[in-house]
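The authors assume throughout that readers already know how a fold can be written as discrete tokens. The format is easy to grasp once an entry is in front of the reader. For illustration, here is how one protein appears when written out as sequence plus structure tokens:
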Amino acid sequence: MGQDPIARTLKNAIKTGRVAHAFLFTGTRGVGKTSMARILAKALNCLDADEPTTEPCCKCDSCIAVNLGDDIDVIEIDGATNNGVEQVRELRQNAIYRPARARYKIYIIDEVHMLSTGAFNALLKILEEPPSHVKFIFATTEPNKVIATIQSRCQRFDFSNITPAKITEQLKSILKQEKIKYEDDLIPPLAKLANGSMRDGLSLLDRLISTGAEPLTTSLLEEFLGCANSEKVWNLIAQIGESSAAGTLDAIEDLTGSGVSEVQIVGSLVDYMRDLMVVKSAGPDSELLILTAEQKARAAELAEKFDIAALIYNIATLEKLRWAVKNSDTARALLEASLLRFALSEHFMNVDQLLSQLEGGPSTGVKKKQTAALNNASGPQPAASPPQQRRDYEQNIPDLSTQPLLDSSTHKQATSEERRETRDEGRETRDEGRGTRDERRGTNDGLLSVIDNWGSFLETIAAKLGAGTAGLLSSAVPARFEDGQLTLEFPHSAQMQKQLCERNGRIEQIQSVLAEQLSRPVELRFEIAAGPPAPQGGQRKPRTSVQNRNELINDPAVKEVLMGLDATITDIEENREN
């Protein structure tokens, strides 16, 4: 089942008489490798046909013996237990004899990757010069462990995982043939649990049938296979989508109280949120969904509570959480904290994202609900230093056009030799003064260059480090640039921005960008501008503080409005009357 391309290729090889002397079947467990090998053996050795046939009768002595596994001409060998050199040498000695009654002597070696290196080398000789009456069929789940010299002498077929839809179809067919009643909601989760393996799906179905219950119901999955109840998982996702912290904790308690472990809850959430992601992306009628009509309707309803970005984030986070929960001594607390993070995701954002919103930039926080973009502008670009600030810096540049001369009385009293030494000293002094002027002129030129290009520097920082970092620096102005050290001054009202710039390695990141722009190493230093803080009485603030915004976002009334109107906050204004 589910391996139609391989079956079609082998049929054509039999019809054209171009059957290889050795095959290598690879793929995960339970996808039909050994079954395909037996079917191929029956097709090659069917006694009811005069030659290899694509439709073995399954009634002759050879076909029946292959089914039972006791055909003297079709030898099945377990590579895990017969992996030594002696066993392979014995195989080589027996292979030279012709088959007793069939056309070919066929060796099926399962788990061939378990053979030792010596056994592989012993097998290699007969593969290089095989007798015409011998066929080899190797099966393995780990083809990378089969040496290259063996693989190069085989026709390799890679068996793919069987789709849940195909497993569902086969399980329903078996239940119908066995005349066993079942609920439609039972088969899709059972097919998913098979994880691409038909044998695993059949084994799980056998476990349910052995309970003796009829009809087979979804409650058996929870009771005997340890699966989470689907209705309880849907309820948990609904509580997350409604941003209900208390409801989320109650739903977790409901699941764990029924005997489901934290790891199983995480795994179920990954599967169910994947279905929501498919519904959101391709619609509820997509063939990628293995759900009943009722389950598709429920998934479509819950998908409206999320956007695709949030679902992708949740799935990736849950996959990381699975391993953390499995190895944690406080798995319950870790699970609850993570799911509350999903439920209250609109209230969690880092400082960069918050400052970006305050500056008018787009929010990059993960939201459960998709919101419309209400901002008409993309946000102000970082501006260059005001002209008045630049004039203040230019006024502070000392006038270096003149230098002090030597005292004339010294020249009158000095001897000719002293006058020579004095002239030499004067020349050296003038040279030193000229060097000092050049140094200061270079320093001032560097500062002026930074001031002139400060706006473009902020744009580059925004592009490389994020709008939040550029927003922090937008209130600073270049003050000094001496010996490769650039001093930036913040006003008294921007002390928080200065502190944030000094945290989390931002200084090194900003230094790297500035050094790249100035083509020289730069060391940053942050200072608060001298003088009293700027008066604020009666003056409207251009933006709210971080504390005010957090307080507003967590206000129950504001939350109710945002959720009820499917809205987002675009601006906050101070009510000066109150």
